Amino acid sequence: MEHDRTPELETSALIERARGGESAAYQALFRLHVARVHRLVYRLAGPSPDLDDLVQTVFVEGFRSLPAFRGEALFSTWLGRIAVRVIWKHRRRPALRLVPLDSAGPIRRDTPGPELGLDARRRVAQVDALLAVLSPKRRSAFVLHVLEGHPVEEVAAMLGASVSAVKVRIHDARREIERRARRDPVLGALFESEGKP
Amino acid sequence: MSCAELGKSLFDLIDGRLSGPQELRAHDHLQGCAACSERVAAWRRALPGLRQAEPPAPDFMTIRRMELAITRELSRAPAPRLPVRRWRPLWAAGLALAAAAVVLVAARAHFSARPPVAMARVETVFGTVTAAGRPVRAGEPLPVGQVVAVTGTGASLAIGRAATVRVSGSALLTIEEADAAVRLRLETGELEAQVEPRRSGEQFAVVLKQGRVEVRGTRFAVGYRDGGSWLRVDEGKVAAFDAGGRLARLVAPGETHWLSPVTPAAEPPPSEAPAPTPRADSCKELQRSCLSAVARTRAAIRASDGPRAVAASAAEGIAVGGCGIDDARQCLDELQYLRAEALRLAGRLPAAVLAYRALDRASASAATRQNALFAAAELERRLGQRERAVRDYQRALAVKGATGLREEAMLGIMETAEEAGDTRTALAAARQYLASYPAGHGAGRARALLRREGVVSP
Hints:
The complex is a heterodimer of chains A (about 200) and B (about 450). Chain A has about 200 residues and is an all-alpha fold. Chain A has helices at about 5-20, 25-45, 50-65, 75-90, 120-130, 135-145, 150-160, 165-185, 185-190.
């Protein structure tokens, strides 16, 4: 799975402008990357009422440490690394300090809403259930490598682990998912095969 | 290659990330191992579905709120230490009060003596507006005394001082007066009006075939249906007069009054825009059109293409009057919000303010109303319309059932009122803020304001 690198060209220019103190550049960077970060945070943390707060926190931390971004990795990868750190911190300390978003509104959703088709919603729920069986470390490695398409070396850098440790986590995650899919016909349907994986 | 080795590089194999020799070894193994072959095949089938299973991207209201929170977080810094006035001589306070009284009297005299200016203008058009047979575009004045025809999805008109009229769909109306006394005659169609409180000597009235309505500052809607005319009040009170000019009723918020002699008793009063109830399949069609417009508008906004976003959000032909499908209503609210965002992106700020404020309606969810009012207030503040901004912040704060922007709205009131020189409102907001959020991110500013004004902070 290849990354879409097109926005990175735009991102480099925006980062320069943001470093120059241009607030519109921060907004543009946010808008350019929010969907991707939101997807990653959702996959790493699962459906959660804190999802939007977590996404916010990723950007706040990212923008605060923008002077330290030297462009050695893609900006999206760098944000991904921050996202992993934010989610781990969140697991240790669930209460966040940021302004809580309104939970009363029907448009803000923590789980897939009606704008997705029924099939798509079902599929997202199935993937949620699959990922939920994994430990946080295995989940992070599986999501980053298998679903987000980062090479193992990049995942290792993002997780602060060795390449071999990441390979083991991905392997273990795969085995765990296969076991779960064999037991659960609904999840097994994801593999669409007569014989289970 | 063993089964275990293949298992560790299974995803690299599927994604084509193995080197040539590694890939050859993997394929050699697969040819002789049915279990691994089946495993690879199963994951090949499953992976596209797993990867495509993405949660819905955050909607634009959520994005806006995140931006706001991020900006606040980034700008968070210790409140500057301002000099505290420890001593204030009594004579100085007395002099200040006397000066304020003189200014107040002068201002009142000025406003009461100032001749009213006749004004009617098209703010936004979602179709066509013609007056005396000539098309009138957004920003252009409307003639008084001529029949104005609105076609398409509708238009917003600014009439007189601080009054906005939103025409839904096609309508025929005449602006009979547009100065201190505003009088519109609605011939066909329906309109929604937002009228700021009238000053002494000012009036706002809409004349219908079966009577007229008069307000002193409120939000209401009127229109025709089933041979009669209706009035729905969203805020404040509206006086409804019958055709003989007699006061029929003072209509309260949330109530609907029929001015026609024949009241369709069996039908519930219109909740938003009364129209013949569409069939369920046409509602679904509307919903599909709406979702498509939402997707196009989102794409254009993401591409920072303001004009395209404005065009995509025009919602030509999309109206949901009578649709009982919640998703359709939510979609239209979201489309309306996106339209406001698009107008803002296109730099059409006054039109964006109107579009945001149009979401302050009973059918919209509490969160949507609060978001929209807050966004309107932010823009009004930017445009220097501080009094209006304070009012919209206050409305956002008052929305029942929405708590997400309470803190921000209180700060908005405090800061904007202070900028406008309305110290009383600013101090009240500062106190309210500190009572609700003593450790909030604006607590330092609120305490500083109270100290500056010589008030002991709670």
